[in-house]
Amino acid sequence: MTSTGTTDSPTVSDPLDPSRRPPFLAVVSPRVAEAAAVATTVLPGVTPVIHAPHPTAPSRLRATLASIRSEDRPLVVATDSAAIARDADRIIVTDGGDILEDGTPDELLALPSVYAQLYSDEIGANFVGPAPDIADE
C-alpha cells in the first residue's frame, strides 16, 4: 500500500499541535484507584494509565506530564488532583464509580462544577461562583 499524503495530513500526529496530537484524558476522583478503573473503561486498551496522586507541587507534575506526551499514543492520567488535570484535553470527574462531569477544563471551570470546586480548593481561587464585579467594589 502506498501513501499519497504528505506530512501535513491530519492523520500525522504532532504533540505540539492540539488539533493533531493524541488526546490527553484525565480522570479525577477522590480515590486514584477508582480514577484508574474508570480511565481503563473509557479508553480500553490505552496504556499506560499514569497514577498521579495529589502532589505538593502540581506545576512540577504538570510539566512532567507535558514532557512525556507521546506523538503516537494518548496520555491517560488517573488522579485525585484537579490542578494536575488542567492541561488535559478532556476531564472526567468521578465519585463512587459514577461519572459526575465530563468536558474540557475550560468548560468545567466556566460552570459551578465539582471540578471547579476541587480546582479552586487546590489553587486558592474562586472558579465556582460568579466573578466579582470590580466596578461594584
TrEMBL record:
<feature type="compositionally biased region" description="Polar residues">
    <location>
        <begin position="1"/>
        <end position="12"/>
    </location>
</feature>
<feature type="region of interest" description="Disordered">
    <location>
        <begin position="1"/>
        <end position="21"/>
    </location>
</feature>
<dbReference type="InterPro" id="IPR027417">
    <property type="entry name" value="P-loop_NTPase"/>
</dbReference>
<protein>
    <recommendedName>
        <fullName>ABC transporter ATP-binding protein</fullName>
    </recommendedName>
</protein>
